[in-house]
């Protein structure tokens, strides 16, 4: 019973506050709504807009704690945009991942599948030590959207993962 009374009292206070401020606040509310609509439209356009050709630093997220960018890279890779096509270079944590495939594992095992071949990257940790790890140039179909990326390790088993690339910052 006390909860019902408290809820009704709260609703009455809210209704009173709305009624008292209808005049100019209603106009402001329309302005805020219009602004929100414009901002949403601009955000959607920005998401659809292509990046200019160039080199960017961008975040690379995965769905796995076992498959991720090397800690020395702070979760980021180098995004290259050329003629509207995006590719991110990522340095991994070791040489245990030997190939990647842009798609699902079941397609990666088919004859003629074009696997991503690793590069040998040298990473430098905060303590100054260096290590040789595998790196890959991964095609990016779109920013801020998950896409499939399969990997195969040294044991010869393919695994499916979801990854995404976001927050590109142009490098000078």
Q: Name the beta content range.
A: 35-45%
User: Could you say which structural class the secondary elements and strand pairing correspond to?
Assistant: alpha+beta
**Rg from C-alpha positions?**
25 Å
Shape: globular
The termini sit apart by 65 Å
Summed up, the helix count is 3
Major sheet summary line: 8 strands, antiparallel
Number of strands: 8
Percentage of residues in helical conformation: 25-40%
Report strand order across the widest sheet: 4-7-8-1-2-3-6-5
The string of secondary-structure elements, in order, is HHEEEEHEEEE
Mean pLDDT: 80
Uncertain regions: pLDDT < 50 for 5+ in a row?
1-49
What can you see in these coordinates?
Helix content is 29%, strand content 38%. An eight-stranded antiparallel beta sheet has the order 4-7-8-1-2-3-6-5. The N and C termini lie far apart (65 Å). Mean pLDDT is 80; it is low at 1-49. It is an alpha+beta fold and 172 residues long. The protein is globular and about 40 Å long. The chain has helices at 2-20, 22-48, 105-108; strands spanning 54-62, 76-82, 85-91, 97-101, 119-124, 130-140, 147-153, 158-170. It is built from three helices and eight strands; from the N terminus they run H-H-E-E-E-E-H-E-E-E-E.
Write the layout of secondary structure elements.
Layout: H1 2-20, H2 22-48, E1 54-62, E2 76-82, E3 85-91, E4 97-101, H3 105-108, E5 119-124, E6 130-140, E7 147-153, E8 158-170
Question: Descriptors for this entry?
Answer:
172 residues, alpha+beta, eight-stranded antiparallel sheet, 8 strands, globular, disordered N terminus
